[in-house]
Amino acid sequence: MTDCIFCKIVSGGIPASLVYQDDRVIAIDDIDPKAPVHILIIPREHIASANELDDNNKDIVSHIFMVAAKLAKTKGIAQRGYRVINNCGVEGGQSVAHIHFHLMGGRSMTWPPG
Length: 114
Ligand code: AMP
Ligand code: ZN
Prior knowledge:
Radius of gyration: 14 Å
Strand order of the largest sheet: 1-2-3-5-4
Strand content: 15-25%
Order of helices and strands: HEEEHEHE
Number of domains: 1
Shape: globular
CATH architecture: 2-Layer Sandwich
Structural class: alpha+beta
Bound molecules: adenosine monophosphate, zinc ion
Distance between the termini: 31 Å
Number of helices: 3
Oligomer: single chain
């Protein structure tokens, strides 16, 4: 999608701090980190939000969780614990309309989120 910032990062049109990539996803450091580890895991395919998941694209979610767990180990936060978060829609706090999951850790999290 031409005016999507994450599609532009996926295609290399906008630079980002790449921490992982494979044939289905990229992972980048969040530009405005809210935790010592704050990585965004982004599918290469443009899916606007969790509302657009269906039988054809749903497997990306399990892949993303597997990548999150792998990165948590790489970053040394797996044993301490971490969060994998998806914000969906306006009230969910989604600001970029290309589905992505936040891997956050390195500090104690509070519950419930704000
Ligand atoms: P959300 O609010 O769940 O849609 O999350 C969007 C996230 O993308 C925010 O945490 C932003 O800080 C992050 N973000 C926006 N633009 C960029 C960028 N160019 N590079 C890295 N992270 C970004
Ligand atoms: Zn996109």
